[in-house]
Amino acid sequence: MHIDFHDKTKSITADDIDLLQRIIEYAGKTEGVSHESELSINFVDNREMQELNRNYRQQDNPTDVISFALQDSVDGEVSIVGKDIPLLLGDIVISVEKAKEQAITYDHSLQREIGFLAVHGFLHLLGYDHYSEENERIMFNKQDEILGAFKLER
User: Fold this and answer.
1) Whole-angstrom Cα distance, residue 37 to residue 71?
2) Per-residue model confidence as pLDDT tens digits over 58-88
3) Alpha carbon of 87 to those of 33, 44, 69, 81, 96: distances in Å?
4) In this predicted model, what pLDDT tens digit does every residue of 74-123 receive, in sequence order?
5) Rounded to two decimals, what is the model's pTM?
6) CA–CA gap between residue 63 and residue 134 (Å, rounded)
7) How many CA atoms lie within 13 A of 57 on its CB side?
8) Across the strands, what pairs with 132?
9) Among the listed residues 144, 51, 65, the one whose alpha carbon sits nearest the alpha carbon of residue 98
10) What does the domain layout of the chain look like in residue ranges?
11) What CATH fold (topology level) applies to the domain 2-148?
């Protein structure tokens, strides 16, 4: 799996990137995602996250993570036909400021919080949601299993 990392905050370490790469590759493998798949993970500040949240979700406040899935189909959309075309999953945007706040609130490491947000965003790219109790249980159990494999429990 190819993951493009973009850190606009210049605060994410090479070790953090390495850990996230391994976590997302593991999550992709457990979910049966093609190793040819591509996505990006972007790290921003609260100001930029608030702008994204306002523009795309009509909520004028910063949030911790937003996912933009490219595989959502739209009525009338033309399908791409071809062989060996990488599966473009989409983009995950994480507010580093929110992640730091939440790590303190939940009394765990920043690595655990960023790992959680990346996995949460990745599962949204795959179509998981938490809009019902049943869907939330399924998604959160998957998150716990993936993070547990890397000793990033709460």
Assistant:
1) 11
2) 999 999 999 999 865 444 444 444 445 558 9
3) 9, 25, 11, 12, 27
4) 444 444 444 455 589 999 999 999 999 999 999 999 999 999 999 999 99
5) 0.90
6) 23
7) 14
8) none
9) 65
10) 2-148
11) Collagenase (Catalytic Domain) (3.40.390)
